[in-house]
Amino acid sequence: MKQRNKGQCFVCDSFGMHDKLRTYEDNKVSAFLSYNPVTRGHSCVFWKDHVLFSSLSKRDTQYLVDVTTRISRVLKKVFGSDSINRLNYNFDNETPHAYFELIPIYHNEVERTGFYYFIPNRKKTESFEELTELAGKVGDSLETLFS
Ligand SMILES: [Zn+2]
């Protein structure tokens, strides 16, 4: 297992800070509701060790995709979104963790232009307490699905 460099990586630092927003964790990945969601249910799923996407083994890549698929199913159910965008911004850039953003799409709130969804800037409407409660709901549903 590769060394994690706490204090030098904003992702590793956020693992502790956002404990209450965690929806899923195992020995490989950690998932959270975003503290500043672009849509309701916006989540981030990180590979816990410092491994870039391009260095992730085929087996681990499949594992990450599988976990994000399960989480997407739960987000769709809990938040009632029409779909989920699974995005990987900054491939091998900016963060030393392979990760996906899961962005629930609500068709009545977005514009679709060809391949892209335009998501208008949104002010965060959920309080930290509400986000914590929602993270609990997602976590409970995931426990049911994973067990
Ligand atoms: Zn890190």
Notes on the protein architecture:
This protein has one domain (10-141): HIT family, subunit A (2-Layer Sandwich). The longest helix has 22 residues, at 58-79. It contains three helices and seven strands, in the order αβββαββββα. The protein is globular and about 40 Å long. The protein has 147 residues and is an alpha+beta fold. Bound molecules: zinc ion. Zinc ion binds at residues 4, 9, 11-12, 50, 96-97.
Summarize the helices and strands and which ones pair or pack.
Elements: H1 10-17, E1 22-25, E2 29-33, E3 43-47, H2 58-79, E4 83-87, E5 99-105, E6 111-113, E7 116-118, H3 128-146
Antiparallel strand pairs: 1-2, 2-3, 3-5, 4-5, 6-7
Helix pairs in contact: 2-3
Q: How many β-strands, per DSSP? A: 7
- Chain-averaged pLDDT: 86
- Major beta sheet summary: 5 strands, antiparallel
- CATH topology tier name: HIT family, subunit A
What's the assembly state of these chains? single chain
What portion of residues is helical? Answer: 25-40%
Radius of gyration, CA atoms, in whole angstroms: 15 Å
Distance between the termini: 25 Å
The ligands bound in this entry are:
zinc ion
Q: Per CATH, which architecture?
A: 2-Layer Sandwich
* Shape estimate: globular
Strand line-up across the major sheet: 1-2-3-5-4
Overall tally of structural domains: 1
